[in-house]
Design goal:
single chain; alpha+beta; six-stranded antiparallel β-sheet; five-stranded antiparallel β-sheet; 2 helices
Protein backbone atom coordinates (compact mmCIF):
# COMPACT_ATOMS: atom_id res chain seq x y z
CA UNK A 1 0.00 0.00 0.00
CA UNK A 2 0.99 3.63 -0.23
CA UNK A 3 1.49 3.74 3.55
CA UNK A 4 3.93 0.80 3.43
CA UNK A 5 5.88 2.43 0.62
CA UNK A 6 6.19 5.66 2.60
CA UNK A 7 7.27 3.71 5.68
CA UNK A 8 10.06 1.96 3.70
CA UNK A 9 11.16 5.28 2.27
CA UNK A 10 11.31 6.77 5.76
CA UNK A 11 13.42 3.85 6.98
CA UNK A 12 15.88 4.30 4.09
CA UNK A 13 16.20 7.99 4.92
CA UNK A 14 16.78 7.24 8.61
CA UNK A 15 19.52 4.70 7.73
CA UNK A 16 21.16 7.27 5.47
CA UNK A 17 21.07 9.84 8.26
CA UNK A 18 22.70 7.34 10.62
CA UNK A 19 25.42 6.62 8.04
CA UNK A 20 26.15 10.34 7.59
CA UNK A 21 26.26 10.90 11.35
CA UNK A 22 28.76 8.01 11.65
CA UNK A 23 30.90 9.57 8.89
CA UNK A 24 30.90 12.86 10.80
CA UNK A 25 31.93 11.09 14.00
CA UNK A 26 34.75 9.24 12.22
CA UNK A 27 35.93 12.54 10.77
CA UNK A 28 36.47 14.04 14.21
CA UNK A 29 40.03 13.97 15.56
CA UNK A 30 40.31 14.10 19.33
CA UNK A 31 43.55 14.80 21.16
CA UNK A 32 44.40 12.60 24.15
CA UNK A 33 45.76 15.67 25.98
CA UNK A 34 45.02 19.36 26.30
CA UNK A 35 47.05 21.86 24.29
CA UNK A 36 47.11 24.41 21.50
CA UNK A 37 46.64 23.29 17.90
CA UNK A 38 49.59 23.99 15.64
CA UNK A 39 48.90 23.61 11.92
CA UNK A 40 51.62 21.87 9.93
CA UNK A 41 52.83 22.65 6.43
CA UNK A 42 51.72 20.70 3.37
CA UNK A 43 52.77 20.85 -0.26
CA UNK A 44 50.35 22.88 -2.39
CA UNK A 45 50.56 25.01 -5.50
CA UNK A 46 54.24 24.25 -5.91
CA UNK A 47 55.26 25.39 -2.45
CA UNK A 48 55.06 24.43 1.22
CA UNK A 49 52.49 26.25 3.36
CA UNK A 50 50.33 25.69 6.43
CA UNK A 51 47.31 23.50 5.88
CA UNK A 52 44.06 25.43 5.38
CA UNK A 53 40.41 24.76 4.65
CA UNK A 54 39.96 23.40 1.13
CA UNK A 55 43.42 21.82 0.80
CA UNK A 56 43.68 18.34 -0.68
CA UNK A 57 45.04 15.76 1.74
CA UNK A 58 45.93 12.09 1.57
CA UNK A 59 46.10 9.13 3.98
CA UNK A 60 48.71 9.30 6.76
CA UNK A 61 49.42 12.98 6.09
CA UNK A 62 50.15 14.89 9.31
CA UNK A 63 47.98 18.01 9.48
CA UNK A 64 48.25 19.39 13.01
CA UNK A 65 50.25 19.02 16.19
CA UNK A 66 49.27 19.76 19.77
CA UNK A 67 52.58 20.38 21.52
CA UNK A 68 53.01 19.86 25.24
CA UNK A 69 54.96 22.90 26.45
CA UNK A 70 55.89 21.10 29.65
CA UNK A 71 58.14 18.80 27.58
CA UNK A 72 59.87 20.98 24.99
CA UNK A 73 62.81 20.01 22.78
CA UNK A 74 65.39 22.15 21.03
CA UNK A 75 66.37 20.45 17.77
CA UNK A 76 69.61 21.71 16.23
CA UNK A 77 71.98 20.65 13.42
CA UNK A 78 75.59 19.90 14.38
CA UNK A 79 78.19 19.48 11.65
CA UNK A 80 80.03 16.23 11.13
CA UNK A 81 83.32 17.57 12.50
CA UNK A 82 81.79 18.31 15.91
CA UNK A 83 79.00 15.78 16.36
CA UNK A 84 81.42 13.11 17.64
CA UNK A 85 81.97 15.27 20.75
CA UNK A 86 78.25 15.26 21.57
CA UNK A 87 77.04 12.52 23.92
CA UNK A 88 73.67 11.65 25.43
CA UNK A 89 73.28 13.25 28.87
CA UNK A 90 75.59 16.23 28.31
CA UNK A 91 74.47 19.55 29.77
CA UNK A 92 73.34 22.30 27.44
CA UNK A 93 72.34 25.94 27.56
CA UNK A 94 69.48 27.00 25.28
CA UNK A 95 68.80 30.58 24.20
CA UNK A 96 65.83 31.73 22.15
CA UNK A 97 66.00 34.49 19.58
CA UNK A 98 62.58 35.77 20.64
CA UNK A 99 63.60 35.94 24.32
CA UNK A 100 66.96 37.74 24.50
CA UNK A 101 68.62 37.69 27.90
CA UNK A 102 67.03 34.40 28.95
CA UNK A 103 68.93 31.11 29.25
CA UNK A 104 67.33 27.72 29.75
CA UNK A 105 69.04 24.55 30.98
CA UNK A 106 68.82 21.42 28.91
CA UNK A 107 70.31 17.98 28.42
CA UNK A 108 71.19 16.08 25.24
CA UNK A 109 68.56 13.38 24.80
CA UNK A 110 69.14 12.07 21.27
CA UNK A 111 71.75 12.24 18.51
CA UNK A 112 70.92 11.15 14.98
CA UNK A 113 73.25 8.79 13.12
CA UNK A 114 71.81 9.79 9.73
CA UNK A 115 72.60 13.21 8.14
CA UNK A 116 69.71 15.63 7.87
CA UNK A 117 68.28 16.57 4.48
CA UNK A 118 69.47 19.54 2.48
CA UNK A 119 66.24 21.46 3.15
CA UNK A 120 66.82 21.24 6.92
CA UNK A 121 70.51 22.05 6.71
CA UNK A 122 71.89 25.46 7.68
CA UNK A 123 73.63 25.45 4.31
CA UNK A 124 70.30 25.25 2.50
CA UNK A 125 71.53 22.72 -0.03
CA UNK A 126 72.04 19.03 -0.45
CA UNK A 127 74.52 17.03 1.55
CA UNK A 128 76.44 16.10 -1.57
CA UNK A 129 79.47 18.04 -0.42
CA UNK A 130 78.88 21.15 -2.55
CA UNK A 131 76.99 23.08 0.11
CA UNK A 132 79.16 22.50 3.18
CA UNK A 133 79.75 19.71 5.69
CA UNK A 134 77.10 17.15 6.49
CA UNK A 135 75.02 17.88 9.57
CA UNK A 136 73.34 15.64 12.13
CA UNK A 137 70.27 16.37 14.22
CA UNK A 138 70.75 16.67 17.98
CA UNK A 139 67.75 16.87 20.31
CA UNK A 140 68.13 18.76 23.58
CA UNK A 141 65.41 18.40 26.22
CA UNK A 142 64.65 21.57 28.19
CA UNK A 143 64.63 20.70 31.88
CA UNK A 144 62.11 23.31 33.02
CA UNK A 145 58.77 24.30 31.54
CA UNK A 146 58.11 27.96 30.79
CA UNK A 147 54.95 29.71 29.60
CA UNK A 148 57.10 31.70 27.17
CA UNK A 149 57.95 28.59 25.11
CA UNK A 150 56.34 28.36 21.69
CA UNK A 151 56.72 25.63 19.11
CA UNK A 152 58.90 26.64 16.17
CA UNK A 153 60.95 29.29 17.99
CA UNK A 154 64.48 29.83 16.69
CA UNK A 155 66.94 28.45 19.24
CA UNK A 156 70.69 28.36 19.72
CA UNK A 157 72.22 25.62 21.84
CA UNK A 158 75.59 25.47 23.58
CA UNK A 159 76.38 21.86 24.48
CA UNK A 160 78.93 21.50 27.27
CA UNK A 161 81.35 18.87 25.96
CA UNK A 162 84.18 19.55 28.42
CA UNK A 163 85.84 21.95 30.85
CA UNK A 164 89.51 22.92 30.93
CA UNK A 165 91.31 25.00 33.54
CA UNK A 166 94.29 27.29 33.13
CA UNK A 167 94.51 27.41 29.33
CA UNK A 168 94.95 30.16 26.77
CA UNK A 169 92.04 31.18 24.54
CA UNK A 170 92.38 32.60 21.02
CA UNK A 171 89.79 33.46 18.35
CA UNK A 172 89.02 30.38 16.27
CA UNK A 173 89.86 32.12 13.00
CA UNK A 174 93.49 32.63 14.09
CA UNK A 175 94.17 28.89 13.89
CA UNK A 176 95.89 28.00 10.61
CA UNK A 177 98.14 25.49 8.92
CA UNK A 178 101.77 26.19 8.00
CA UNK A 179 103.93 23.48 6.44
CA UNK A 180 101.78 20.77 7.99
CA UNK A 181 101.82 22.31 11.47
CA UNK A 182 98.86 23.87 13.31
CA UNK A 183 99.43 27.24 14.92
CA UNK A 184 98.89 30.99 14.83
CA UNK A 185 100.78 33.95 13.39
CA UNK A 186 102.18 36.17 16.13
CA UNK A 187 102.43 39.92 15.56
CA UNK A 188 105.94 41.22 16.19
CA UNK A 189 107.75 44.49 15.53
CA UNK A 190 109.93 42.90 12.86
CA UNK A 191 107.84 40.40 10.89
CA UNK A 192 105.04 37.89 11.53
CA UNK A 193 106.21 34.78 13.39
CA UNK A 194 104.48 31.41 13.20
CA UNK A 195 103.92 29.82 16.61
CA UNK A 196 102.87 26.17 16.76
CA UNK A 197 100.01 25.41 19.17
CA UNK A 198 98.17 22.39 20.53
CA UNK A 199 94.43 22.88 20.24
CA UNK A 200 92.62 21.23 23.15
CA UNK A 201 89.03 22.26 22.48
CA UNK A 202 87.09 24.51 20.11
CA UNK A 203 83.67 25.95 19.73
CA UNK A 204 82.41 28.22 16.96
CA UNK A 205 84.10 31.30 18.51
CA UNK A 206 87.32 30.42 20.33
CA UNK A 207 89.95 27.70 20.67
CA UNK A 208 91.56 26.56 23.92
CA UNK A 209 95.29 26.05 23.29
CA UNK A 210 98.64 25.24 24.80
CA UNK A 211 101.56 27.15 23.28
CA UNK A 212 104.58 29.36 23.88
CA UNK A 213 102.46 32.48 23.52
CA UNK A 214 102.59 34.85 26.47
CA UNK A 215 99.67 36.73 27.95
CA UNK A 216 99.17 39.93 25.97
CA UNK A 217 100.76 38.65 22.74
CA UNK A 218 98.95 39.80 19.62
CA UNK A 219 98.06 37.34 16.86
CA UNK A 220 96.78 37.79 13.32
CA UNK A 221 93.23 36.74 12.48
CA UNK A 222 94.58 35.13 9.30
CA UNK A 223 97.89 34.17 7.73
CA UNK A 224 99.41 37.56 6.79
CA UNK A 225 102.05 36.04 4.50
CA UNK A 226 99.67 34.88 1.74
CA UNK A 227 96.63 36.08 -0.18
CA UNK A 228 93.20 35.88 1.43
CA UNK A 229 92.07 32.87 -0.63
CA UNK A 230 95.14 30.84 0.34
CA UNK A 231 94.88 31.95 3.98
CA UNK A 232 91.24 30.83 4.08
CA UNK A 233 92.09 27.41 2.65
CA UNK A 234 94.90 26.94 5.18
CA UNK A 235 92.60 27.89 8.06
CA UNK A 236 89.94 25.41 6.91
CA UNK A 237 92.55 22.68 6.57
CA UNK A 238 93.83 23.34 10.09
CA UNK A 239 90.32 23.42 11.54
CA UNK A 240 89.45 20.09 9.96
CA UNK A 241 92.64 18.53 11.28
CA UNK A 242 92.06 19.94 14.75
CA UNK A 243 88.47 18.79 15.09
CA UNK A 244 89.27 15.31 13.83
CA UNK A 245 92.01 14.94 16.46
CA UNK A 246 89.99 16.28 19.42
CA UNK A 247 88.36 12.92 20.08
CA UNK A 248 91.79 11.37 20.51
CA UNK A 249 92.57 14.05 23.10
CA UNK A 250 89.41 13.52 25.16
CA UNK A 251 91.01 10.90 27.42
CA UNK A 252 94.01 13.14 27.98
CA UNK A 253 91.79 16.10 28.86
CA UNK A 254 89.74 14.12 31.35
CA UNK A 255 92.90 13.20 33.28
CA UNK A 256 94.52 16.66 33.24
CA UNK A 257 95.06 18.09 36.78
CA UNK A 258 93.72 21.61 37.41
CA UNK A 259 96.20 24.36 36.60
CA UNK A 260 96.03 27.43 38.84
CA UNK A 261 92.85 29.07 39.97
CA UNK A 262 91.84 30.72 36.71
CA UNK A 263 88.35 30.70 35.31
CA UNK A 264 87.29 27.46 33.65
CA UNK A 265 86.25 28.24 30.08
CA UNK A 266 83.64 25.88 28.71
CA UNK A 267 83.86 24.47 25.22
CA UNK A 268 80.63 24.02 23.33
CA UNK A 269 79.98 22.10 20.13
CA UNK A 270 78.87 24.53 17.40
CA UNK A 271 75.09 24.35 16.64
CA UNK A 272 72.49 25.96 14.32
CA UNK A 273 69.52 27.96 14.85
Amino acid sequence: TAIDKQRLSLERIQRRIEELEEDITLGEIKSPTDGEVSYLKVWKNGTSAKVAEGDSVWPRLSLVEIPDRSQMMAIVPVNELDVAQVEIGQEAIVTLEALPGHEFKGVVEKKSIVPISGQESRWGSSNSGDGGPREFEVQVKLLEADDMFRQGMTASVAIIVGEIEGVQMVPLETITDFEGRVGVWKHTAVEPTFVEVEVLRTNDIVAAIESELAEGDRVFLRDPTVELEVATARAQQALTQVRESINANNQKLSSRPPVGESESPRAAAPSGA
